[in-house]
């Protein structure tokens, strides 16, 4: 089990020290370059703008490297790490900051969760202060302990196998003593429980476990075979909270506010309150907060169509999120969200223009179509995320694009109707079940698409993981874009060649008669 070997503490400590030293060296090096760049900018002349951008990037890099080095050093040298290296048994007082997630383990049913400890006591010794613990515990003891619940439990500490910002791994020796959760935590749990009850009452088992996963990321009731089908078909992102969930939900709130003729300020306020409520219900973990930011940025890009504004907003969001939680820098989910959002802002409009653009149109604008827009969004997101998926999992999905295209029309309605069912189920489960029943056919469609996509020949193509897999799949993605561009150019050339004689003949008919030439024949 991860983190169960105290003997590995020496190697982990050495790795943490080397990592901290490297970050410190990067920070110092960037500061030196900033000083040199500042002197160069004063004499740069026409290149002053480029130099300013480079210096600003170095300043941000130095700041992140320095702050991360300090945080890693605090984690690796604190008293909690010393207790973990000694393998001590302690009494932990803290708060659950992540819902327990079930692990497939040979040793039995286990769950993993995160606890923000405020006190670690071992005999007369006690460590007081915030400490993040990764807890591996028995599912029977911890499954019913939700996010935000204060807990007290006895556990043995160990050093994590991987360097990072998690100081300690804990293995409880028994069930926790649970305290009262805050009101917002109880309200969020009530909404999630009401949605589960309404889904169970209105939907078959495969769809009943899928609806809470799509709406609020609750995968506890998802059948294993359904989860496997969604993973192999490249649709697993639908069963977790993503930026699309927030975009659909906030977009529906904005449309509702406009239908009620609310002003811009009231609309923004209502959308903000809805966003905060959705974050609380879906659990305000780092992954959910990241999805909320990316979803809002994607929605703004679609509503405004101004890429010049969307990209600075995306860059600012990435910087702020990394400043709040530097561990996101090594998070696959964060990387996938950022690249997918960037593809929505940068690549999707280009692909759409290649596909439907007509350079000879009177107004110079491409013909727009919702179907074509959905296609290019799915293709763009898959092209940029496929290399990361290959590096992470060592495989790629052959049918991910068509499967997500078939699923796209129903995901938004399921999210909005499911959210309404959850709110109504808090008041009356039967009413909530009646609304949840509306999603029966769309959910059945999703389950069918995932099953067919997972069982089709060549559904999953194994690749090398790590850098090699990312380079191979990335090269294939770049090649696909190049072929698309080449085919589009040939089609445009043929279209211009076919239209030119007609254009000339029509122009001859429309031209006024010319005076006869005075030159001799």
UniProtKB/TrEMBL annotation:
The chain crosses the membrane at residues 20-41, 53-72, 238-257, 264-281, 287-303, 310-328, 334-352, 373-394, 406-429, 441-461, 467-487. Residues 497-521 are annotated as: Disordered. It is found in: Cell membrane. Its main location: membrane. It is a multi-pass membrane protein. Residues 214-487 form the ComEC/Rec2-related protein domain. Keywords: Cell membrane, Membrane, Transmembrane, Transmembrane helix. NCBIfam families: ComEC_N-term. PANTHER family: DNA INTERNALIZATION/COMPETENCE PROTEIN COMEC/REC2 (PTHR30619), RECOMBINATION PROTEIN 2 (PTHR30619:SF1). This is ComEC/Rec2 family competence protein. It comes from Rhodococcoides corynebacterioides.
């Amino acid at each position: 089990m991860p983190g169960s070997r105290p003997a590995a503490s020496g190697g982990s400590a050495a790795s943490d020290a080397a990592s901290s030293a490297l970050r410190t060296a990067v920070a110092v090096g960037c500061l030196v370059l900033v000083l040199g760049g500042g002197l160069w900018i004063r004499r740069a002349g026409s290149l002053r703008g480029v130099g300013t951008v480079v210096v600003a990037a170095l300043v941000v890099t130095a700041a992140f490297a320095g702050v991360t080095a300090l945080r890693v050093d605090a984690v690796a040298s604190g008293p909690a790490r010393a207790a973990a290296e000694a393998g001590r048994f302690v009494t932990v007082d803290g708060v659950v900051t992540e819902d327990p997630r079930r692990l497939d383990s040979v040793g039995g049913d286990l769950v993993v969760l995160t606890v923000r400890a405020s006190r670690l006591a071992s005999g007369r010794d006690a460590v007081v202060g915030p400490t993040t613990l990764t807890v591996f515990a028995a599912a029977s003891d911890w499954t019913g302990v939700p996010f935000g619940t204060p807990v007290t439990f006895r556990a043995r500490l160990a050093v994590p196998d991987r360097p990072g910002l998690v100081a300690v791994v804990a293995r409880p020796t028994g069930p926790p003593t649970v305290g009262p959760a805050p009101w917002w935590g109880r309200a969020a749990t009530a909404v999630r429980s009401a949605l589960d009850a309404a889904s169970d009452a209105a939907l078959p088992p495969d769809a009943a476990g899928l609806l809470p996963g799509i709406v609020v990321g609750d995968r506890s009731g998802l059948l294993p075979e359904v989860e496997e089908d969604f993973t192999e078909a490249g649709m697993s992102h639908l069963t977790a909270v993503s930026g699309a969930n927030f975009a659909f939900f906030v977009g529906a709130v904005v449309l509702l506010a406009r239908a009620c003729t609310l002003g811009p300020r009231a609309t923004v306020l209502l959308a903000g309150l809805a966003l905060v409520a959705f974050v609380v219900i879906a659990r305000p973990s780092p992954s959910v907060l990241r999805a909320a930011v990316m979803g809002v940025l994607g929605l703004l890009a679609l509503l405004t169509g101004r890429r010049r504004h969307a990209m600075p907003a995306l860059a600012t969001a990435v910087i702020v999120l990394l400043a709040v939680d530097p561990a996101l820098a090594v998070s696959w989910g964060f990387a996938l969200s950022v690249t997918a959002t960037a593809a929505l802002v940068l690549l999707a409009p280009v692909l759409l223009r290649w596909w439907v653009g007509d350079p000879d149109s009177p107004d110079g604008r491409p013909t727009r179509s919702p179907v074509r827009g959905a296609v290019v969004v799915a293709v763009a997101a898959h092209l940029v995320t496929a290399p990361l998926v290959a590096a992470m999992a060592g495989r790629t999905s052959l049918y991910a694009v068509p499967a997500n295209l078939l699923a796209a029309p129903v995901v938004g309605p399921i999210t909005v109707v499911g959210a309404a069912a959850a709110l109504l189920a808090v008041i009356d489960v039967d009413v909530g079940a009646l609304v949840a029943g509306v999603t029966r056919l769309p959910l059945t469609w999703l389950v069918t698409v995932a099953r067919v996509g997972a069982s089709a020949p060549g559904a999953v193509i194994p690749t090398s993981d790590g850098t090699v897999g990312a380079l191979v799949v990335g090269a294939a993605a770049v090649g696909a874009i190049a072929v698309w561009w080449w085919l589009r150019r040939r089609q445009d050339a043929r279209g211009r060649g076919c239209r030119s004689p007609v254009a000339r003949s029509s122009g001859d008919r429309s031209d006024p008669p010319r005076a006869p030439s005075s030159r001799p024949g």
